[in-house]
Amino acid sequence: MGEAASVKRPGGRGKFISFEGGEGSGKSTQIKLLAERLAAAKLRAIVTREPGGSPGAEIIRHLVLSGMGRLLGPDAETLLFAAARDDHVRTVIQPALSQGTWVLCDRFSDSTRAYQGRLGNVSPGVLNAMQRVTIGDLKPDLTIILDVPVEVGLNRAAARRGAGEPDRFESEDINFHQDLRDAYRQIAAEDPERCVLIDASASPDAVAAQVWTALRDHLFAAATTASPA
Ligand code: T5A
User: Fold this and answer.
1) CA dihedral for 157, 70, 104, 92, sign (positive or negative)
2) Whole-number Å distance between alpha carbons of 80 and 76
3) Distances (CA, A) of 81 to 3, 16, 57, 87
4) pLDDT tens-digit readout, 154-164
5) pTM above 0.90?
6) How many independent structural domains does the chain possess?
7) Which of 3, 89, 129, 159 is the most exposed, fewest CB within 10 Å of its CB?
8) Would the CB of 220 count as within 6 Å of ligand 1?
9) Distance, CA of 28 to CA of 90 (rounded, Å)
10) What's the domain range around 17?
11) Which residue has a Cα nearest atom 54 of ligand 1?
12) Does 118 map to a domain?
């Protein structure tokens, strides 16, 4: 049976799926594979990313990944990510979900919790205030957290970059990336209803199969209007 026949299309609001994980964990690769699978199932979906995803937020992306935000300090850098998210949510994510379009987002608010909260020591008070302003009650219906050993992720990122310079976060030391991995594992453990931790060290197709299983278990099985045959 083909994909189109195996997934019943839900009406109403679209589903919001975020992908999280450390550098080179394979988020972009998996989002692309999932988008293809959803398209085959005739589900309307957009792929977007953070920081960025809207014209205004892409300008801020350029600023933060250049390392400019680091010069301003962790709180101000968090404000930059928040400003980008505010624009992205208002102009891209919310309108798409309201029209019944699924949104596949490469990083979302868990990235701020992990990078700026756990690693940047930005206080929960600041993070919560920013979250209230930028996303309110919006949260992903499902968050896929791709987990790979730090060396694997950094080697993948370096191989893809080739002779190019590492960005603001890729250039942090190995302890930073280990703490990051721990932070994501903790986020997954604290919110098992929303988050699925997936071992992403296998081949892209094997990881994609686990991602699909997570959708089936967390989205299709839960919905009365969308279920695998
Ligand atoms: N950030 C972001 C914050 O600090 N706070 C925030 O609130 C937000 C939203 C964004 C940076 O901003 C920070 C976090 C980030 O450091 P980015 O340029 O968007 O930076 O980069 P990342 O999101 O970190 O993503 P990467 O580009 O590093 O990697 P991906 O998307 O995880 O991985 P992908 O798919 O591009 O794969 C990397 C390479 O590995 C290969 C791919 O072909 C590619 O070459 N690969 C595999 N190889 C073997 N087996 C597999 N299973 C593979 N999967 C992929």
Assistant:
1) negative
2) 6
3) 37, 19, 9, 10
4) 999 999 888 88
5) yes
6) 1
7) 159
8) no
9) 23
10) 13-48+102-223
11) 26
12) yes
Task: State in Å: Cα 44 to ligand 1 middle.
Answer: 24
pLDDT one-digit tens code per residue, 94-126: 999 999 999 999 999 999 999 999 999 999 999
Write the CATH number for 120: 3.40.50.300
Q: Which atom of ligand 1 is nearest to the CA of 168?
A: 16
Q: Which atom of ligand 1 approaches the CA of 81 most closely?
A: 7
In a domain, 80, yes or no: no
Q: With pLDDT > 70 as the criterion, what percentage of the chain qualifies?
A: 92
Instruction: Using alpha carbons, select from 20, 8, 31 the residue that is nearest to residue 194.
Output: 20
C-beta neighbour count of 157 within 10 angstroms:
18
Q: How many residues are recorded in the chain?
A: 229
Q: Is 70 among the domain residues? A: no
Alpha helices in 89-229 (DSSP H): 94-98, 109-111, 124-134, 150-161, 174-190, 204-215
**Per-residue tokens: 96:** 């798409």
